[in-house]
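Chain A, query sequence.
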Amino acid sequence: MEHPPHGAAPRPARTAWIRLAVLAVLLAALGSWVATGGTDLLREVRQWVDSLGPWGPVVFAVCYALAVTALLPGSVLTASAGALFGLPLGAGTVLVGATAGAALSFGLARWLGRPVVARYAGTGRLARLDAYLTRRGFVAVLVLRLVPLFPFSVINYGAGVAGVRFSSYATATALGIIPGTVVYTGLGGSLGDPASPGLWIALGGLLVLSAGGWWAARLVRSRSVEVSATAGSR
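Chain A, predicted structure.
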């Protein structure tokens, strides 16, 4: 497998601990929410969404796409889709919304131009991302979606000013976000029943994804150190 660009994941151990700490806080908040009657609110929201009929998933997908374009984190929205629609429909709705949002961000980045995107993403980081995406195209986008070494929104806007074809970008995005989407919608779909096996399966999947990202970050950092050492010895 082609490795992501060097320098993409500095201090991977620290990043992993931060993510695990955030996950622990979210789980604690979720437990408190359920214990204090949050399921009643969830039931009311579900009833409202059900009243929209077939337009419910459509409205959610549109809102999700706009949220992605506005650089908002999607994990909470993804879990919400699972809580509102269940795993199969919720995951499908998120895949449509996230891919559409990624496509909108791609087009917006091309319209805004590289200088504007560089101010947001950082010139150095954008240069590394640009070189990797231009060289590997579909494979690069797929790897970066599966292993979140760059934030989702940075990839969206960075790809828009890189030399990657839109068709490759969109296809790799749709495929690469499937594992995370299934895990988070499964987690959200288990909110109404904290004792269900599905909740623990989803949590296990979340830990696997986090561990995979941590391992990949360490691998990238070690390769970066090796390359730097080799270059310095020449």
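The chain has one domain: 12-220. Residues 138 and 169 are 6 Å apart (CA to CA).
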